[in-house]
Amino acid sequence: MRNLMIAIGLAAAAACGPSSAEVRTAKTTQYNADPHQILQLAMEATRETYALGDVSEDRLEFITAPKFYSPEGDLESPGAGGVIHMRNGTVEVMFIVQVVTTADHRVAVTVIPKTFQHIGGSPKPRELAPDDPYLPPFVLGRADSLAMAIYEHAKGYAAAPPGAS
């Protein structure tokens, strides 16, 4: 019985997703690779969950196609003709993924949410910055999940952290 309880506890812990330390690693890892190679890996990882929008190989960045969510984070389903019915609080989310060269000639990846919220009665949605207090928490959670997915694809090129031997 005790072994069953331990197994259930381990399964529950594994189902909770990545720890904050794992997310921090994914977001701060630097890579020893050609920036274009890391961009391609980032696009592969992103395509598993999101459609790609504009891609700029010159600027080493891309943006995901917009997805629409309820204020609680449920995906809004398109209706007839692929039209999304915008309700008060509907959130349009895209992610800007950038590959940047660091000072020590390595590359890093950033995932930045670009979010707009529909406000009932307003003809124009309100843009929500990543640090906006009105940004629904699920947006940053999805950004972290995308950063983790990119890290999983590119970790074979991860540079040793400073001070590691």
- SSE order, one letter for each helix or strand: HHEHEEEEEEH
What is the name of the CATH class?
A: Alpha Beta
Helix proportion range: 25-40%
Over all CA atoms, what is the radius of gyration? Answer: 19 Å
How is the CATH topology named? Answer: Alpha-D-Glucose-1,6-Bisphosphate, Chain A, domain 4
What are the segments in which pLDDT stays under 50 over at least 5 consecutive residues?
Answer: 1-14
Largest sheet: 7 strands, antiparallel
Proportion of strand residues:
15-25%
* Count of DSSP H/I helices: 4
Second rung of CATH, namely the architecture = 2-Layer Sandwich
> Could you say which structural class the secondary elements and strand pairing correspond to?
alpha+beta
| Mean pLDDT level | 86
What global shape is seen? elongated
Number of strands: 7
Instruction: Give the termini separation.
Output: 44 Å
Number of domains: 1
Describe this structure in words.
This protein is α+β, with helices and mostly antiparallel strands. The chain has one domain (2-157): Alpha-D-Glucose-1,6-Bisphosphate, Chain A, domain 4 (2-Layer Sandwich). 33% of the residues lie in helices and 24% in strands. The chain has helices at 2-15, 20-28, 35-47, 137-154; strands at residues 30-31, 52-56, 61-64, 67-69, 91-101, 107-117, 126-128. Strands 1, 2, 3, 4, 5, 6 and 7 form a seven-stranded antiparallel β-sheet that branches. A hairpin with an 8-residue loop joins strand 6 (107-117) and strand 7 (126-128).
